[in-house]
Automatic annotation (TrEMBL):
Keywords from the named record: ATP-binding, Helicase, Hydrolase, Nucleotide-binding
Catalysed reactions, as listed in the record: ATP + H2O = ADP + phosphate + H(+)
PROSITE patterns: HELICASE_ATP_BIND_1, HELICASE_CTER
EC number: 3.6.4.13
The protein's name in its UniProt record: RNA helicase
Coiled-coil ranges from the UniProt annotation: none
Organism of derivation: Gossypium darwinii (Darwin's cotton)
A GO term, aspect molecular function: RNA helicase activity
Span of domain Helicase C-terminal: 297-451
Length: 451
């Protein structure tokens, strides 16, 4: 093992930290590829050993090594060191977040300096971790008050963000040296039990609340949830929430009447902020943010992640001229697909429990074929997804961007991911318009015809 300094770290992937004897047995057995992982990276906890025996970790390790040897950009730990509590930083490293993504590298210093921020970066670029790290830098677990609020458009996205927020806080329970009080995260989402949330908020307010605007408004109006102690307010998928006429008035009220932008840090996030100059103007004018709000715009030239490979299949007519419904498609797959993947359905018409069960099955399964509507198009992170099929073209280029962005969600992977569009010949010009607007290229896939 080409190790020559005490601060060398081995990056391997496994969430559980390995004990020293177990780790050294592990290292012995993997000598041939250890050289790849030996990093001369300075971490404050010198004994840290991050065990990640898979290819992703090699990429991470190599990336770190390259950045380090070129005296390049700092690690996530270096960026967060003086702001984020040590136990959260350790947790970050345990789960393999070592190198910052572009948006994290650009936005975190801005956020730590106290500015309001518009996080505008590609799908799958790591915006969630960016604002969660800000939140963990600001909240005090000893204080019994809601100090951070994250507003999301769907229950599914809310559950996902709650899980990541809890995962980052988890180390606190395991470390006896740290204070006993842990960060609590409440999911206040449509379809949840509001009565239970009311008692929870009254008895012992959680530090972080992740909420859909509908459920949140009910508790704000009844003054059960008082955002007086809010230090950070995040609105995720902000363009979507402002676009939806049902939610926009509640959102405006939250931003201005229930709390003042002068008393909190405000973060808006999305991969698509149309007419962003106009939006920034509105933010300041309407006092949704303070006047010095910073627009962190990553990959401004290329809104579409470069790892996505777009194709289309052109048909003369779709069967009986009908748009394919999820039921038709799922029945077809169940009748004709003989492969090993689980076939799952997720759509608005299902009840909340079945929706949650579908996502749990997808996440725990060995492979899946998920048939879904636009309900998963915003923010849902299923990093193992390699192919997206659009059976109907989305209405707008922005919708296309978000649907396509459900794949290609491994920040340091060099793999290609596929988005295939099944279109009618007369829809080619619509797809062409999306290509021009989002600056990507879509290639025709010629199907071999039988007989
Ligand atoms: N620094 C990092 N290193 C490795 N993986 C990361 C890092 N930051 C985020 N990720 C992973 O990248 C994936 C995408 O992150 P995230 O869900 O935050 O994307 P997003 O920018 O919010 O996308 P969208 O616009 O689609 O909501 C997640 O699986 C997350 O675990």
């Amino acid at each position: 093992m080409a190790s020559n300094s005490a601060s060398q770290i081995l990056a391997i992937t496994k969430t559980a930290p390995y004990s020293k004897p177990r780790a050294s047995r592990f290292l012995q057995s993997r000598k041939p590829y250890l050289n790849l992982c030996c990093l001369s990276q300075k971490f404050s906890n010198d004994n840290a050993l991050f065990c990640l025996p898979n290819s992703k970790s090699f990429l991470l390790a190599k990336e770190l090594e390259e950045r380090n040897s070129n005296n390049h950009s700092p690690t996530l730990r270096e960026i967060c060191q003086d702001h984020v509590p040590g136990n959260v930083l350790r947790r970050l490293e345990e789960v393999g977040y070592l190198v910052p993504t572009d948006v994290q590298r650009e936005a975190l210093p801005v956020l730590f300096s106290g500015n309001d921020c518009i996080l505008h970066a590609q799908t799958g670029s790591g915006k969630t971790l960016t604002y969660l790290l800000l939140i963990y830098s600001q909240i005090n677990p000893k204080k019994s008050a809601v100090q951070a609020l994250i507003v999301v458009p769907t229950r599914e996205l809310g559950m996902q963000i709650t899980k990541v927020a809890r995962m980052l806080a988890a180390a606190r329970h395991m470390d006896p040296e740290l204070e006993q009080k842990s960060y609590t995260v409440m999911a206040l989402l449509d379809g949840g039990m509001l009565r239970r949330h009311k008692s929870w908020l009254k008895a012992e307010p959680p530090a972080i609340v992740v909420a859909t605007i509908g459920s949140l408004s009910q508790l704000l109006e009844k003054q059960i949830f008082k955002p007086d102690s809010l230090r950070v307010l995040v609105v995720d998928e902000v363009d979507f929430l402002f676009k939806s006429s049902k939610q926009v008035s509640s959102l405006r009220k939250l931003l201005t009447s229930y709390s003042s932008c002068n008393n909190r840090q405000t973060v808006f996030a999305s991969a698509s902020i149309l007419q962003h100059r106009r939006f920034i103007h509105d933010c300041i004018q309407q006092k949704w943010t303070k006047g010095d709000v910073v627009h962190v715009h990553v990959n401004r030239i290329m809104p579409m992640p470069a790892c996505l490979y777009h194709r289309f299949v052109s048909e003369k007519s779709k069967k009986s001229g009908q748009a394919s419904s999820t039921t038709v498609l799922i029945d077809f797959l169940r009748a004709s697909y003989e492969g090993p993947l689980d076939i799952l359905l997720l759509e608005e018409d299902m009840n909340f429990n079945s929706r949650a069960a579908s996502l749990t099955d997808v996440r725990k399964g060995d492979g899946y074929l998920l048939v879904s509507t636009d309900i998963v198009a915003r923010g849902i992170d299923l990093p193992e997804t390699t192919h997206i099929y659009n059976f109907d073209l989305p209405k707008t280029a922005i919708d296309y961007l978000h649907r396509a962005g459900r794949t290609g969600r491994k920040p340091f992977s060099d793999k290609k991911y596929y988005v295939t569009n099944i279109i009618l010949s007369e829809e080619r010009f619509v797809l062409q318009r999306f290509e021009n607007e989002l600056m990507f290229h879509c290639e025709e896939l010629i199907m071999e015809t039988q007989g």
